[in-house]
Each structure stands twice: as C-alpha cells, then as structure tokens.
C-alpha cells in the first residue's frame, strides 16, 4: 500500500464549549476534561429530535506534551417511545402494545467521531458519513451538560460559523436589519471591539447579550463599521453566538431583501493524516493552530 493510500482525511465542524466556574474562576484543562469524560462514564443521553437520540459511547484521554486531547465516539440512535406498534402483516387490525421489547436497546445506531481540545475548549465533530449534523450535536451537548453540571457551574455551547457568511452580510450593498446574539468568551478574543464588548459583558455579569439594529429607511442601510459595539458584536458572534440579517444584494429575490442566518453555515475544516494512528495528534495540532489560545 502506498503512503498516499494510507492517508486519512478528517473533515469536521466545530463547537465552542465555554465552562463558567463558581466565583468567576477560569475553567482549567482538568475542569473541561471532567465535564466531557462524565458524559461517557455516566452514559448521558439526550433526545435531539423526535426521531434522533444521542449518547456518548466512548471517551479516551491522550496526553500530548503538557496538554490533553480527548477523543471518542458519540452515537446517534432512534429512540423507542411507549405506545402502540403497527402489525405490518395485518395493518388493518388493532395496534399492539410494545410488549417483549428489549430493555435499554435501541435501533439504528450510527457512530460519529469527536475530538476535544481542553486548552482552547473546541470540540470537533467529524462529518464522515454524515449521520449527525452539527446542530444536532450542539443540541445533544447542551442537553447533556445540563444533566451533569455541579452547583455554580454554567456552560455555553456555540456553533463555530463560516466567516464568509459574515463577510457576505457586511459586504451587502444594503443591510436592513441585523439581530446579533452573543455569549461571553473564555478570554480568547484578539480583535479590539470584540474584546472590549466581551469585557463589558463580563463586568456587568451579562451571560448572553442580544441586540437588534434596524435601518432608519435610508437608501444606504446600516453601516456596521461606524458602530463599534455593533462591529464588536459581529466579531464575537462568529465563535460565540449567531447573527440573523436582512440584506439587499444581487441574491435577493425581491426588493424586500433576503434573510441570512449564520448558524445555517457552520465552519468546516479538514486535516490530512499520513496514517490512521496520527489522526488524534494531527487534530490537536490543527485545533491549536486554528485557536492558538491553548
């Protein structure tokens, strides 16, 4: 087998997991490790849609120098609910009770690989096979964390979004409306306006901030660049929130414009490993390069 044949490409979307500790203490690597590993050790599961449940099957800790990388499997399945079952052999007959079904057994399991870097609190969800969207993964972790948080702990989970979508909004000839929702960061913002807004949120004990700006009807629309706090909110939202905007541009079907939802355009990254055994370390290096706080 050639070296090229043995290579492995991992394509993934990202979640930003932000753990808040009691008394405003900054969460450590060990705090994040404990948060994630409990999901596997306690078999925490959650239903994310009517037909999709998720559980963490496995979580492995690997040390890379002074840092830690977690990786493992989350599994999508079809929840079984109480009620009636249709007899496919005699569908016109009365439905039957779910008697004799195995306890704690569910159909259609599909595994999804994940990688988590505690040093910069980014969680990568593999797109291989596509059994679980990043939105479904997001909803699982939000619901699962709520089941294990200790007294005084809070956690936010945000989808990392594609920067091109934000630029598409800002470059539109006319922005009629923007609604921006952001949460605090873990002190990893380098842009001045974003860092300033983040600090103001923390000093005022604001966990989540929502702002809506509507054009006054002028032909030009909103000019985000001239409004520092609005620009800061945009910068924060790519990793720590989301934006909904109504813009008028060449893609607009009518003069009323079109709506752009940044959360519908998740950030996608990939890494190529020379062999399967290198995937975890290559993912660690990739996440560290993308988010150099850690």
From TrEMBL:
Pfam families in the record: DUF4747
Disordered, as annotated region: 252-275
Biased composition range(s): Basic and acidic residues: 258-275
Protein name, as recorded: DUF4747 family protein
Naturally occurring in which organism (per UniProt): Hymenobacter negativus
């Amino acid at each position: 087998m050639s070296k090229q044949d043995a290579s492995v490409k991992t394509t993934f979307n990202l979640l930003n997991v932000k753990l808040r500790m009691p008394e405003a203490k900054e969460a450590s690597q060990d705090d994040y490790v404990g948060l994630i590993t409990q999901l596997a050790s306690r078999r925490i599961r959650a239903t994310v849609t009517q037909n999709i449940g998720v559980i963490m099957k496995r979580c492995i800790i690997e040390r890379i120098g002074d840092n830690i990388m977690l990786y493992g499997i989350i599994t999508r399945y079809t929840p079984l609910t109480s009620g009636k079952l249709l007899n496919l052999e005699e569908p016109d007959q009365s439905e039957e009770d779910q008697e004799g079904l195995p306890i704690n057994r569910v159909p259609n399991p599909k595994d999804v690989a994940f990688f988590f870097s505690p040093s910069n609190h980014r969680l990568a969800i593999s797109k291989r096979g596509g059994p679980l969207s990043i939105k479904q993964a997001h909803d699982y972790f939000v619901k699962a964390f709520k089941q294990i948080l200790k007294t005084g702990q809070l956690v936010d989970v945000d989808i990392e979004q594609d920067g091109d979508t934000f630029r598409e909004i800002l470059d539109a000839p006319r922005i009629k409306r923007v609604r921006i929702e952001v949460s605090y960061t873990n002190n990893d913002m380098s842009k001045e306006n974003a860092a300033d807004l983040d600090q103001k949120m923390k000093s005022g004990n604001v966990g989540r901030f929502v702002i809506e700006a509507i054009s006054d009807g002028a032909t030009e629309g909103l000019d985000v660049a001239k409004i520092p706090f609005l620009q800061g909110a945009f910068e924060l939202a790519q990793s720590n929130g989301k934006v909904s905007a109504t813009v008028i541009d060449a893609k607009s079907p009518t003069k009323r414009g079109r709506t752009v939802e940044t959360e519908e355009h998740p950030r996608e990254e990939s890494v190529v490993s020379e062999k399967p055994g290198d995937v975890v370390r290559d993912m660690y290096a990739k996440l560290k390069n993308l988010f150099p706080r850690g």
